[in-house]
From TrEMBL:
Top-level taxonomy: Bacteria, Candidatus Blackburniibacteriota
Residues annotated as transmembrane: 7-24, 79-96, 108-125, 132-149, 161-187, 199-217, 261-285, 297-316, 328-346, 358-380, 400-423, 430-449, 461-480, 487-505, 511-530
Residue ranges occupied by any Glycosyltransferase RgtA/B/C/D-like domain in the UniProt entry: 66-217
InterPro entries: RgtA/B/C-like
Pfam families the UniProt entry points to: PMT_2
Keyword annotations of the record: Membrane, Transmembrane, Transmembrane helix
UniProt-recorded name of the protein: Glycosyltransferase RgtA/B/C/D-like domain-containing protein
Protein species of origin: Candidatus Blackburnbacteria bacterium RIFCSPHIGHO2_02_FULL_44_20
Length: 650
């Protein structure tokens, strides 16, 4: 069968992007030192067992990395190749999913390219972190899920569930895929007046089998790691008390946790809106007449997005104040701002003038309505696929919006009171909180359950339902896992947001000039930032590791801009010390075990080195040029200082 041009173009783009990121570097990144060591231990022992620092389920990625290491030899470079290969299949699956949604080839190529070159995501392709392998399997699961819904195929449903559970064996979030598809077919059975027993069974079998097998291996085989105890299980015990308090009086005690959960979800949703901002800017601007006719629609969509945005900033202002130069403003404003790539842009101007930073801040503020509009349209138009709202005569007739307004007012009042130290926790407030949420739930049920259509509008409704369920369930897991606000936790949500956007704006025309300009800009910024970060850290790691292995320096004497360096060398030395300190209870072992190694106390008689290049005879200008001219002065300066120290030591 002849390959369509769009797919061929995506394969070409992916290949070019990977080639431009070369050369591969022998470098760790953040937590992947534990994943690296897990593959190493498996190759040496043949026993499938996670390293003590591993937090996600990971075992499938461990086997995948071991397969490539068996074929190509064990190294960080080999592990990076394993991720690159897997993500290739994920990107192809994402493109084909867009085409199955009847999105044009042009839009499918643009949307897929946008996902590929998002800077943080592309950077993680060149690591052995779990984010990209999990995302790749999720994308394959989504494709089979769409085929299952479109073709009414139980075989595709089985494959979708299986790939979702394969993703679960890398990160637990993968379990949302079979759950979401199962719910879709339950609802489909209701509307079609036909019980899809084979489909539901095909989804349940791989999900239950893999889930049971994994937890048997985990619990009965005593394979829970210290990292999983510390970051997951201990935290879930606390979360359970928040979600299911033993007594109504305890609810007031956990009030701030509830607000934190709500705040976290609002932030994640807003981040999803911002990732879509470049796509919104590619659309043709509607005529003034069209805008006038859509005043009510625009008000409703802007309201939905504005409530989310307001809740975020109320929390940020409460926690960190109004100072423009405060560290949290520097982080969150470009992040939420919402230039979807503002965080990367800030990295470019952070070393320059205050004026440029202020310009970026105000540019971020200026783009807020676009992101809010994108998110509001997605939510509202998806809502219309399922529910008839014939009686909306004005803004306040929509119960959903009234409920959202009450939520916003309640949270604002509590946050404002807390900000001015007027709030005092009590059982009375806790009871009021329960009543409040009961009212919100009743409004939700009345709006969404008792006013549904006799039959869903189209297949798009089922597709959107599948995507929204997957997104919402993962948001819930992110909320209770206390994952922080880092971009990597959002990677699995980005394609879901883009797919919903693609359905909603499928018929919207693109502006050819802006589409070309924005796409090229995204590619240049994303590729340049990801390559610069990978090459600079990789170069420093390789040079420093060479000198450590020669015995010229100790790892603790080298400072590299990646968290993985110290635990890569010292985690296992510190683990027994930390374990003994905790009375042999591995459930309490903190992951920063290397801080317990006595020899790591700072030796002030020796300089702390920035980037390691120890032998001047092996230095070449090519080593500098291959990284980036942006870093040339800094690297040359550090090289001279470092080598001067080594010559003195000799």
């Amino acid at each position: 069968m002849k390959m369509e041009k769009g797919l061929l173009l995506i394969i070409t783009i992916y290949t070019i992007v990977i080639l431009l990121m070369l050369p591969l570097r022998e470098v760790g990144y953040h937590m992947d030192f534990g994943y690296h060591h897990a593959v190493r231990d498996f190759l040496q022992s043949g026993i499938l067992k996670n390293h003590t620092a591993v937090v996600p389920s990971f075992i499938l990625q461990e086997l995948w990395g071991a397969l490539f290491s068996y074929l190509l030899g064990f190294s960080y470079k080999t592990l990076h190749i394993s991720v690159i290969v897997l993500f290739f299949f994920g990107i192809i699956a994402f493109y084909k999913t867009l085409r199955e949604l009847n999105v044009s080839q042009t839009k499918s190529v643009i949307f897929t390219t946008t996902l590929l070159v998002f800077p943080h995501l592309l950077r993680f392709v060149f690591t052995f972190m779990t984010n990209i392998p999990h995302l790749s399997l999720e994308l394959i699961s989504l494709l089979f899920g769409i085929w299952a819904i479109k073709r009414n195929s139980w075989r595709d449903a089985f494959c979708s569930s299986a790939f979702g559970m394969f993703a679960f064996l890398i990160r637990n979030f993968g379990i949302v895929m079979p759950i979401s598809l199962f719910i879709v077919f339950v609802i489909k059975s209701y509307y079609d007046r036909k019980f899809y027993f084979k489909h539901l069974l095909a989804i349940a079998i791989p999900a239950l089998f893999i889930f049971s097998a994994y937890y048997y291996w985990l619990i009965v085989g005593d394979n829970i790691t210290s990292g999983q105890y510390y970051y997951v299980y201990n935290h879930l015990v606390e979360t359970k008390r928040h979600l299911f308090p033993p007594n109504i009086k305890y609810v007031a005690t956990y009030y701030h946790s509830y607000i934190g959960y709500y705040y976290r979800v609002c932030l994640f949703v807003l981040l999803l809106f911002t990732i879509l901002l470049p796509l919104v800017m590619m659309l043709k601007v509607p005529s003034l007449e069209t805008i006038k006719k859509s005043k009510g629609f625009l008000l409703r969509t802007l309201f939905i997005g504005s409530v989310l945005f307001a809740l975020i900033y109320i929390k940020i202002i409460q926690d960190h104040g109004w100072r423009l130069e405060g560290v949290y403003w520097r982080i969150y404003l470009p992040l939420i701002g919402p230039l979807s790539w503002g965080h990367v842009l800030y990295r470019y101007v952070s070393g320059n003038s205050y004026f440029l930073r202020v310009i970026l801040y105000f540019l971020s503020y200026a783009t807020i309505p676009l992101a809010i509009f994108a998110g509001g349209v997605m939510i509202y138009k998806s809502h219309l696929m399922f529910f008839e709202l014939k009686k909306i005569k004005n803004f306040f007739n929509n119960k959903l919006l009234i409920g959202a307004l009450v939520v916003a007012g309640f949270i604002f009042q509590k946050q404002l009171a807390a900000y001015f130290f007027l709030y005092h926790e009590s059982a009375h407030d806790a009871f009021g909180l329960w009543v409040f949420w009961a009212i919100v739930l009743a409004v939700f049920i009345h709006t969404f359950v008792f006013r549904h259509r006799e039959k869903l509008v189209s297949l798009d409704a089922y597709f959107s339902l599948f995507f929204w369920l997957s997104l919402i369930f993962q948001l819930f897991m992110l909320m209770i896992y206390d994952t922080g606000l880092d971009f990597e936790y959002m990677f699995a949500l980005f394609p879901l947001a883009i797919l919903i956007f693609a359905i909603v704006f499928r018929e919207a025309p693109l502006s050819p000039f802006r589409t070309l300009a924005i796409t090229l800009t995204l590619v240049l910024i994303g590729l340049h930032w990801a390559r610069k970060d990978y090459q600079s850290i990789g170069w420093a790691w390789e040079r420093s590791a060479q000198q450590v292995n020669r015995g010229l320096i100790e790892p603790r004497q080298v400072g590299i801009n990646t968290w993985a360096w110290m635990p890569y060398w010292y985690y296992e030395a510190g683990y027994p010390i930390e374990l003994a300190k905790q009375g042999g209870d591995r459930r309490k072992v903190y992951i920063h075990t290397w801080t317990e190694v006595p020899s790591l106390e700072q030796d002030h008689t020796k300089p702390y080195l920035g980037i390691g290049e120890c032998n001047t005879l092996e230095w070449s200008e090519r080593d500098i040029k291959i990284i980036d001219r942006f870093y040339e002065r800094q690297l040359l300066f550090i090289k001279k200082e470092f080598c001067a120290y080594l010559w003195q030591a000799k």
